[in-house]
Amino acid sequence: MKFYKSIILFFVVSFLVVGCRVVKLEPIEILTFQQKLENIFPNAEITKIEAKDHFTKAFQLILNEPLDHNDKSKGTFKHYVYLSHISVNKPTVLVTEGYSAYPRTYELSKILKGNQVQVEYRFYGKSRPDSIPWKYLKNDQAIEDYHQLVTKLKTLYKSKWISTGISKGGETVLIYKSKYPYDVAVAVSYVAPLINGTEDIRTQEHINKIGSDECRTKITQFQRVILQNRDSILKEILKYAAVKKMSFTEVPPEEALEYAVLEFPFSFWQWGGKCDEIPVKNTSVKEQFNFLNKIVGIDFYNDKTYYNLLPSYYQHLTELGYYGFDTGSVKDLLKVVHQPTNKRFAPKNIDLTYHPNYIKQVRDYVENKGNKILYIYGEYDTWGACAPNPKPHVNFLKMILEGGSHKTRIKDFSTKDKQLIYNKLQNWLGYSVSIYPL
Q1: Rounded to whole angstroms, what are the CA distances from 356 to 180, 293, 316, 361?
Q2: Total-model pTM
Q3: Residues 396, 402, 407, 413: is their CA dihedral positive or negative?
């Protein structure tokens, strides 16, 4: 009996010792969302900005981006990214801007009510170095910017990724998809051309046949009237420039006027010009200038825009391709621009050798293997003439808005067509992702 009492006492004492033992717990580290971003991008400058629409947080990221992803020793540039957050469990929309960027909510982000990562294109806007190293302004370098960014952010955002972009940004969507097919689940490209050569003849063929004969005749008549009233129109340009504090030293006013006239048919159809608004011959010079300015924008040729668009012209003339000008209907009235070319607006003393195979390879991919790509176009948009045409076996959806322009978005389609778009997105993304109709 005494033996059993000893055993019981032993267990009681042992239990008390164990029960009183101080157990050291590892500290639980709770990071803020910004701290999580700082861990992912330790060398970036990250600041809070205003969150809009459905987002709960928003940040500006300034990355130290390699100039050359193949040789990091070449240095870096400041690359601006705008991240708008709602939840790590929501889908994430990657916006590949074609030019500069300013924080705004894209249509697709509203449809999915997801996160949004908006990336300024390298060497545009705030991401432009004081002196552009042109040899690094290549699409493959930009695509690597996106790939590295997405790879890092996927450690945070593990739901579906969708890429989107408009015009040149939409073209970048297609290029990115061709280079890294599995980075995103779905690609949504708006009004994006894939251009043949530096003067793609398809744009002029489009201009020559779109709309009515009457409308195309009015366009030609308007071009001629502007040049016939050259002196008076030039006075309007100078008055407008003075009010807007614009200078025209790179492209003098008379040259700007002639290029604007040659540009007019392209821009008219691109931006959805109205035929019944084209001024007739007996209208005032002021009305004529205002309409030219509304469609083309004379500020397109002022020094500030000239400077801002130098990277764009470099890319178009070396890799992306562009369009030409038709002088036929106004050749007898031209005094300055006898051999119009977009090279006029490109950087000087820089190698502008065009590489035709670059876009050809992108086109071959999206037309033959580009699955889960949604294409949005407007019927009248001049750039639509350069749209890719995927083969029937490819899993894609191409929507063309009747009478639509370069401003065409999903919201502009009929209820029936919008539902077709939503159904396709739902099918591609799966039912774990919610669709919120516009």
Answers
A1: 21, 34, 11, 9
A2: 0.92
A3: negative
Give the separation between CA 38 and CA 34, rounded to whole angstroms.
6
Going by C-alpha positions, the residue among 101, 193, 97 that lies closest to residue 146 is 97
Element (H, E) at 201: helix 201-209
Distance in angstroms (rounded) separating the CA atoms of residues 201 and 213: 20
Write the CB contacts of 116 (distance below 8 Å, at least 6 apart in sequence): 55, 82, 83, 84, 92, 93, 95, 105, 106, 109
d(CA 62, CA 429): 30
φ, ψ (nearest 5 deg) of residue 211 = 75, -165
Domain range for 146 is: 33-197+360-429
Copy the structure tokens of residue 431: 């039912």
**Per-residue pLDDT tens for 113-146?**
999 999 999 999 999 999 999 999 999 999 999 9
Task: Based on the fold, state whether residues 235 and 164 are members of the same structural domain.
Answer: no
Picking from 287, 310, 345, the residue at the C-terminal end of a domain is: 345
In a domain, residue 13? The reply is no
Same domain, residue pair 334 and 227? yes
Would you say residue 108 has pLDDT above 80? yes
- Asked if 424 contacts 111 with a C-beta cutoff of 8 angstroms, the reply is no
CA distance 94 to 113: 13
* Within a domain: 129: yes
CA atoms of 353 and 84, how far apart (whole Å): 39
Residue 179 shares a structural domain with residue 226: no
Tens digits of residue pLDDT in 43-57: 999 999 999 999 999
Residue with tokens 């040149």, as numbered in its chain: 168
> How many structural domains are present in the chain?
2
